[in-house]
Design goal:
Length: 500
């Protein structure tokens, strides 16, 4: 008998002994009428490997299933673990992600001990979602990758939630192209293999809208929204349907159809309120604030954004909270409250490289700038929500959260853009140029084409007013390059579409 076989035989013997003792049976009572007490004694000592017939006899006498006796895994354990995952999901929806992560970790550890791969993967997926909410993007990716490895032998639709989570983590880190690649390659693989799973496809198309919009690939974003709407009737998941409505709203905002966007957000908000999913409900307030800002209703925009920020801060959703604050600062600036806006923005960038340290990219002697919060451009970049995932709080910020090149890069660029505008408006051209350059260096690596074009225009205008015409022309030309075919030069062919 090999070492592994001896170990499994010994483990089986210990399990029989434990179950027999728990039930108060003697070895003779367990053995009869087919076997002897001596046989049971030898089995419990791990000195004999019982036959299937013997195991079925023992399982029947002990009142357990054959599977539970041979593997130690009880169907009751699986049910209990699935219920624990549900409880952890509820905790994530209504409370702090750190607390929910503790519950998911307990399920993961017990599922691993008992050998329940499905329940373990569900717990790891939950841990990834918790890490997304707290802004721990590297940790989130690690958890999602662990799910993919665990389910490597399963059909692709089983792995799609983890792939979607990993794509969102890359999106929040500012890696827009790679996020698109993950989502599009999965869509292609699903369609090429004939696995037209409506839930998996809806998850992927909904997730693709955000990176498409941030890259300026509006046509692809609109098509993804259309396909998501077509798939929705085949999916019975209110949370995913609500997320889809949020994504669709972003494409409508970009087209100037703000009334329709607000109606789509109202549908999402109603579902989230019914489901008591507080983080996603906060995202709805966030996007509605963006819609009102687009319509010029700045008072309502400020109210919605403050509501979103407070809700996210109460859940300690660090990254989302600071991203909302960038949007809020933009509204405050437009309302003439520049001192408040600046006071809100500067702490968010405390952990980013100094603005002046940014080199002048693209060969400009004072490079262009970046992409601002959703509001600033004519529908190019989307509202905070779709700008990927997000951050911490203003007053409730405890200093550990911030925006960096690897954490909320698009919004970090947006914050520098706003600070550049504020400096420009008060006549501090040097500070404005530094912030525009810092924004540009952040955004160039993300591929946020519309934001980059807008920044180049702002920098060009500043340089022209300073009399630096050659540098201004360089900035304008660079901006036109980003504007010419946004989102198409870095993306391959659009993914194949499923039969509808």
């Amino acid at each position: 008998m090999g070492a592994a076989g001896a170990e499994s035989t010994a483990e089986l013997g210990r399990r029989v002994l434990r179950l027999r003792t728990e039930r108060g049976f003697t070895q003779r009572q367990l053995a009869e009428p087919a076997y002897t007490a001596a046989y049971v004694s030898t089995l419990e000592a791990g000195k004999v490997r019982p036959s299937e017939a013997a195991l079925r006899h023992l399982a029947d006498r002990l009142g357990v299933s054959y599977e539970e006796l041979t593997t130690g895994r009880s169907p009751r354990d699986a049910t209990r673990l699935r219920a624990a995952v549900t409880d952890a999901r509820r905790a994530l929806a209504t409370g702090a992600a750190e607390d929910a992560a503790g519950l998911f970790a307990e399920v993961r550890d017990e599922a691993e001990r008992l050998g329940f791969a499905e329940e373990r993967s569900a717990a790891l997926l939950g841990l990834g979602d918790c890490a997304l909410e707290t802004g721990d993007l590297t940790v989130a990716r690690d958890h999602f990758e662990a799910v993919e490895r665990l389910l490597a032998g399963e059909p692709l639709p089983r792995r799609i939630p983890a792939i979607r989570g990993r794509a969102v983590a890359h999106l929040l880190a500012g890696e827009l192209r790679y996020s698109c690649y993950l989502l599009e390659s999965s869509i292609d693989e699903l369609n090429a293999s004939g696995l037209h799973d409506p839930y998996a496809l809806l998850l992927l198309y909904t997730a693709a809208i955000a990176p498409y919009m941030d890259m300026g690939a509006h046509a692809r974003a609109v098509r993804a929204a259309e396909l998501a709407l077509a798939l929705a009737p085949s999916v019975d998941d209110p949370g995913l349907i609500a997320r889809m409505h949020r994504g669709v709203a972003r494409t409508l905002i970009a087209e100037g159809r703000t009334a329709e966007a607000d109606a789509s957000l109202a549908k999402a908000q109603e579902l989230y309120e019914q489901l008591r999913i507080h983080t996603d409900l906060a995202h709805c307030h966030w996007m509605r604030g963006y819609v009102h800002a687009q319509d010029g209703n700045l008072e309502r925009a400020e109210r919605e954004l403050r509501t979103a920020r407070d809700m996210l801060a109460s859940k300690r959703a660090a990254l989302f909270t600071v991203q909302v604050e960038v949007e809020l600062a933009d509204v405050l600036r437009r309302r003439g409250r520049t001192a408040e806006a600046e006071a809100l923005l500067l702490p968010l960038l405390a952990r980013t490289p100094a603005a002046g340290a940014a080199s002048a990219p693209m060969g400009l002697d004072a490079a262009p700038g970046e992409a601002g919060p959703g509001q600033a451009r004519s529908g190019e970049a989307g509202p905070g929500e779709a700008r990927s995932g997000e951050a911490r709080s203003g007053e409730a910020r405890s200093g550990e959260a911030g925006l960096t090149a690897d954490r909320g890069a698009v919004h970090a660029g947006g914050a520098h853009r706003l600070l550049g505008l504020i400096a420009d408006e008060r006549g501090d051209a040097e500070a404005a140029e530094e912030h525009y350059c810092a924004a540009l260096s952040l955004l160039e690596r993300t591929g946020a084409a519309g934001d980059l074009a807008d920044l180049c225009r702002l920098l060009g205008d500043l340089l022209r007013r300073e009399g630096r015409l050659e540098a201004a022309m360089d900035a304008y030309r660079t901006g036109l390059g980003h504007r010419a075919a946004p989102g198409t030069t870095t993306l391959g062919p659009a993914p194949a579409e499923p039969p509808m």
